[in-house]
Design a protein that fits this description.
The chain contains 21 helices and two strands. The chain is mainly alpha-helical. Helix 11 packs parallel to helix 21, helix 12 runs parallel beside helix 14 and helix 14 runs parallel beside helix 16. The chain is globular.
Length: 549
């Protein structure tokens, strides 16, 4: 009997060792060196925060006495952010991603809608990318990633520069027509500045591919980035739910009491708790909430984007706790899609989820899919039961809008509208909403017709080729990954890239948050093979060490 018990214990211990390879042992000397290095890095970061924060404080106090308080806050904070992001570009990118969803709230609640505050997020992004660019030059690493993007990018830039020079430039030199009634408007136009801002909207955040590629060095950092998106989604969505509660309870009036067309237009006068312009006229059955963003439609696309990001964590994260967090994130995204009044969010959030289930193959993984599906169904069922009128209103609004203007007919009409535009287009920025400060712009609500209007048909084709190259290259990258969780993450992010690359309904690729998330997560997918090689090498090293014992 004793011999049998001993043999059982030995077999159990052997099975445990085989099931989980022992981690490589680190010497005490090496461990102490690592701790000293980490402590030194933390001390340097704190020192930089104190230095740039102190400099910003001095500048802010100086500006406070010679200018407005808003200018003082923007100037002092701007100097601190610019200096720190340039010194520590990777940390600057982390701060950029965290700040971006709240930029609209900061702009209108602290900055009063000042253009300086609208550009505040670029105070993180631009110096960080300059720092990464200088590092690439110093170390010999490529800045344009992947290499196959170079030619399509240069061709697109060529068309854009020709348009900027010959179309926007000609408009800049053109004298105002005295026979036209809007002479003053013509005089105040700045077509060159409009073109520069239009180019920035078009590919200004493309360097985020490089930023994400060099920012995420290990699987741990990848998981941190994925989990961060879920945390931000949950915080923003909970604020969106509170915003709706404040409006529905009367704590915020919204557009109640307005008259005429004002009852149907989002306005900053009605802003509530977070975000900017909103529309809340329950007597007319219309709601357009901005969440934490400047405008309602940006909030809608934030929800659509996070349908993919929360799904990725819910189905791909190796930690059960974070998978539950991803599920909760999916639930609050769905709830906000129902109450925000954004028809496109109500349609695309469930559509994106279904596409992800099919294209990532998770629908076949019943062990993981059923609990998440049942949990999500219970949450959504509770929302429908507790708010049946609101949900019915949103569905009726979506159906009526579809019947009045089917998306296929709408997109076809937009292409027909710009079919006469040839050559180099009408000028960069001429259909970009954010460029209206520098002159007259035309509202074109679909992406590729907008490109045709601004840079002509060949320019639009060049942009399509660039996006197709990124989509195909990122597909090859994630398909080469062997680690299951990494491959699953890659599939989710690639589907998001695929959807946005060929989406022509509205122009989300021009405006936050999609213009940030698209380029960033394309870089994340392209980084996956390098992270996977690290994981495979680590596993191999552990196995070799275990076998040598």
């Amino acid at each position: 009997m004793p011999t049998k018990q001993k043999s059982k214990k030995k077999s159990k211990s052997k099975s445990k060792k085989k099931g989980k390879p022992a981690a490589p042992q680190v010497s005490k000397k090496e461990l102490a060196a690592r701790k000293r290095q980490i402590a030194k890095q933390i001390q340097q970061v704190i020192g930089a925060l104190v230095t740039y924060g102190g400099l910003g404080l001095v500048i802010g106090i100086t500006l406070f006495f010679i200018a407005e308080p808003k200018i003082a806050l923007a100037g002092g904070g701007g100097v601190a952010v610019l200096g720190f992001s340039f010194k520590y570009p990777i940390l600057g990118l982390w701060a950029f991603l965290i700040y971006m969803p709240f930029a609209g709230t900061v702009t209108y609640w602290m900055g009063g809608g000042s253009p300086i505050f609208q550009l505040a997020k670029d105070g993180f992004f631009i110096p960080a990318m300059i720092g990464i660019g200088m590092w690439c030059k110093k170390t010999g690493n490529p800045f344009i990633i992947p290499k196959v993007v170079k030619n399509p990018l240069y061709i697109l830039l060529g068309f854009c520069l020709l348009t900027l020079l010959f179309v926007n430039g000609a408009q800049q030199l053109e004298p105002p027509d005295p026979l036209r009634p809007n002479v003053n408007e013509q005089v105040n136009e700045q077509p060159i500045l409009m073109g520069i801002l239009g180019l920035k909207a078009l590919i200004g955040y493309l360097p985020l591919i490089t930023g994400a590629y060099y920012k995420l060095k290990t699987k741990k950092e990848l998981l941190l980035a994925a989990r961060l998106t879920v945390i931000l989604a949950i915080i923003c969505c909970l604020l969106g739910i509170v915003q709706y509660q404040f409006l529905s309870s009367g704590k915020c009036k919204g557009t109640r009491g307005f008259t005429g067309q004002q009852l149907f237009r989002a306005t900053l006068k009605a802003k509530c708790l977070v975000g900017g312009a909103l529309l809340f006229s329950p007597s007319q059955g219309v709601i357009r909430l901005p969440g934490t963003f400047v405008a309602p439609w940006q909030w809608g696309w934030f929800l659509i984007s996070n349908a993919a990001f929360t799904f990725a964590v819910a189905f791909s994260d190796p930690s059960p706790i974070w998978r539950i967090g991803g599920l909760f994130g999916m639930a609050v995204v769905f709830v906000n899609a129902a109450i925000s009044g954004q028809r496109i969010a109500l349609a695309l959030v469930p559509t994106v989820t279904i596409i992800l289930l099919v294209l990532t193959g998770q629908i076949a993984n019943l062990k993981r899919f059923l609990p998440i599906g049942i949990g999500l169904g219970v949450v959504l069922g509770g929302v429908i039961v507790s708010n049946p009128v609101v949900v019915q209103e949103r569905i009726d609004s979506f159906v009526s809008r579809w019947q009045a203007a089917p998306p296929t007919a709408f997109i076809t009409g937009q292409f027909h509208e710009v079919s006469h535009v040839g050559g180099l287009g009408k000028g960069l920025g001429r259909a970009t909403n954010s460029a209206r400060t520098f002159g007259r712009t035309r509202l074109i609500e679909t992406y590729y017709p907008k490109l045709i209007y601004e840079i002509g048909q060949f320019g639009a084709i060049a942009m399509l080729v660039l996006l197709t190259t990124i989509t195909f290259t990122s597909f090859k990258a994630y398909r080469s990954v062997k680690d299951k969780s990494l491959r699953s993450y890659g599939a989710c992010y690639w589907v998001f890239v695929l959807i946005i690359s060929y989406n022509t309904y509205y122009y989300p690729l021009d405006v936050d948050p999609v213009t940030v998330y698209y380029w960033y997560f394309a870089g994340v997918v392209l980084r996956l093979p390098a992270i996977d090689k690290q994981e495979q090498a680590r596993i191999k090293a552990e196995e070799e060490m275990e076998n040598s014992k």
